[in-house]
Structures are given as structure tokens and as C-alpha cells.
Amino acid sequence: MRLSEQPLADASLIKRRNRFVAEVRLADGSETIAHVPNTGRMGELMLPGAALRLSFNPAPNRKTDYTLLAVSYQDRWVCIDATMANRLAYEYFVSLPEINDLRREVTRGDSRFDLAGTFDGRPGAIEVKSVNLVVKCGGRACACFPDAPTARGRKHLRSLIDGVRAGYADGLCFVVQREDAVCVIPNEATDSEFAALLREGISAGLCVTALRCQVTRDEISITGELPVDAFASNKGMIKRI
User: Where does the record place the SfsA N-terminal OB domain (predicted)?
Assistant: First the structure.
């Protein structure tokens, strides 16, 4: 699918002003700001001078006319739009014959999940996580989540674990929005509690899936699944790629 239905533009990064705003230089040399739809640190991606792809969508209720969608890193495009992960996951799961009545943004109890439906006849929910960070860990290029401590992610995992223990067919899906990873591991060095909860969930029967994407200047598509090595540890052995 296209990175955006809105017109796309080239730019380069001047600096990331805060979690939600980046200062950018457009192809004509003019400078402006762009919304950053990702709260992760992305320290290895958001470097001054990095080539960017933006969408142009001016509107009266927006503070910026542009949204930052992708960053070029080591001659590869990385999609940093966290909302894209939900769209890709829906496209993938809705095509599977064992999944029916797939819906988006579904509330159960005090949690709101990205997807919900019936899985081989059992009701369940799926929480989707966008992954942009890849590190060298044990000689492998591993996609790593989270990029920053995530209280929200831990809350979702606890709710999914409770759901599995109550009989729901719950799952977690990592969408790796770059193509250079060979597996997904928890970022224990950044959020050890999330890593512990992920392992607890898998032991309880939580279904964990990871999807790899191919990203170009204009498009992104799922190319297949990646293995999830939830019991790998990256403590003391991280080298960001």
C-alpha cells in the first residue's frame, strides 16, 4: 500500500524538536515543521541531514501541513508511521481463513485493542506494535521492541495475558517496518518489565506474531513473518544497526 493517499514530498531532517515535531528542509530549500507520528526515541534514525518522505495534508485543525512517514537509513527506507502498523496488520489478518469478523479499535473491559475477532471460532483480541529499531544481538540483526519504556505496552500485555487465562484467543503482533531484521526480540535493556511480561504471556499461551515489511520511497508491503525470540536478552550486547 502507499505510504499515504496524500501527496508525498522529499525533505531532509534539520532536527527533531520534540516527540511530535521535527524541523525539516523541503526539496526547494524552504524550512518547515512536520508531525512525527511515533513517540519512540529513534535515535539512530532521526539524524540531521537524513533523507525523509513526508505527506502533505494541510487542514485548518492541524498545526503542521506535513507528516513524517519514512526515513532513509543506510540506503534503506524505514517507515516510522506507527499508525501504519495497524493498517498493515489488519490487511494481513483479515486475509486469513481462520479469522472472522475482524474489527478495529475494540474495547474489552478497561482496555482498547487494535483488532478483535474470532480465531478458529474463539473470540480474541490482537494488540499491534510498530517496530523501527534493529540491533545487532548475538551476531543477528534483531528487530527490538520497545524503543523506549512503554507503560501503555505493559498495560496491554497484562490485559492480553488476563484474556488468555480467561479463555480468549488473544495475540500480540509486531510489525517491523523495515526489511533488514531476521527476528524480533524484546528490548530488555530498555524495558525489562515488558520483556518479562512478554515471556509470561507466551508461557500462558499468548499468540505472538511478527511481520516483516518492504519499504520503498512511496509504498510499504508485508513480505512475510519473522520468528519471535522472546527469551533472547540484549542486555549488555546491543549495537544499533
Answer: 14-80
